[in-house]
Amino acid sequence: MRTFGVEEEFLIVDPDNGSPVPLAGDIVRLHGAGPQGVAPPFGPTLAIELQQEQIEVITSPHSSLSALGAEIRAGRSYADSLARRAGARIAALATSPLAIAPHATNTERYDALLEKFAMTAREQLTCGYHVHVSVDSDEEGVAVLDRIRSWLPVLTALSSNSPFWNGSDSGYASFRTQAWNRWSSAGPTDVFGSAAAYHSLVADLSATGVIMSPDFDARLSARHPTVEIRVSDVCLDARDALLIAALVRALVDTAAREWKSGQRPDMVSVPVLRQATWRASRFGLHGELLHPRTHKPATARHVLAALHSHVRDALEGTGDAHYANEGLQRILSQGTGAARQRQAHQRTGSLAGVVAYATGVTHLEPIDHERTDQPYFAAASGTAALVAS
């Protein structure tokens, strides 16, 4: 059983007006400030990111989906408890609905990023969701990277949770993807073929003097024996975050088995993969995606069915099949984070209302208009026919 863990980035928001507030330093200080600031015994770790308006929560590695899910929920709750002590809340929003001029974190690394990348770095207040899955070696890890490329845009569509940017509707389901891809090494990669080729490219990129580390959609971790998949928005709903983690582990398992059996990777070009990413970012599950096998437009429902079929054996092997089945159906009926944010905007008439709604969903706090006999949240009105069958 492969182990996996996640990194979730959250906005720190004012509970009254929804604006992001630069309190990451205060939250991290509270994290180590004694008994009231002690994390649960099993984790998580808190970390500061590029901007002071965001905080990262990092889980431990786990082998079971239930254990990872427990830590994801505990991590959200713990970070929020510290934020409350600082006068704020945390919200699982991949971009801020309200306009904001972020406050950069002053460290040697981040100062260098700001100096080099200028406005790209200054404006980069985005919250992603990274999943780490263990691999036996760099060779296996690169073989996995070569074989999951075509499936990654589907994860972008499933996790899409950033429709608003700079105080207005961007028209995209995941505008975070658009903002993130302004970094010079962000995006999909070619098939490497070997660990040596991977490391050679990273060395060549580093030698340009532009990047500090590659921002590929998926990469070998520099610190852990894992592959790191980085294409997802932070998920509004913790259950969706756990679903993405289950699917990522299943993709890694499936790719490793293909490699061991001698199956060659799909040699689709990077420019075509960029179009798949763009479609996923623009439409989420509301429009056509590029099918990961044919690279032609197909309904989101058919693309999700293809993903599910591709990883079904791996999901059954880890015991995650039932959770994945229910999770995919829930998102199809209830909507992605982006769809739910837009519904909240229609109901409340304000972007501050979107933040208030998102804060509740982040922590699975029941909201009257969504309360039913089902646990947590039921399908919001108007989303049952999210995609055509």
UniProtKB/TrEMBL annotation:
UniProt xrefs under Pfam families: GCS2
Annotated keywords: ATP-binding, Ligase, Nucleotide-binding
Protein name: Putative glutamate--cysteine ligase 2
HAMAP family the UniProt entry points to: Glu_cys_ligase_2
Catalytic reaction annotation: L-cysteine + L-glutamate + ATP = gamma-L-glutamyl-L-cysteine + ADP + phosphate + H(+)
Enzyme class: ligase
Record-linked PANTHER family: GLUTAMATE--CYSTEINE LIGASE 2-RELATED
EC number: 6.3.2.2
Any GO molecular function: glutamate-cysteine ligase activity
Family: Belongs to the glutamate--cysteine ligase type 2 family. YbdK subfamily.
SUPFAM superfamilies from the UniProt entry: Glutamine synthetase/guanido kinase
Cited function: ATP-dependent carboxylate-amine ligase which exhibits weak glutamate--cysteine ligase activity.
GO terms (BP aspect): modified amino acid biosynthetic process
Superkingdom field: Bacteria
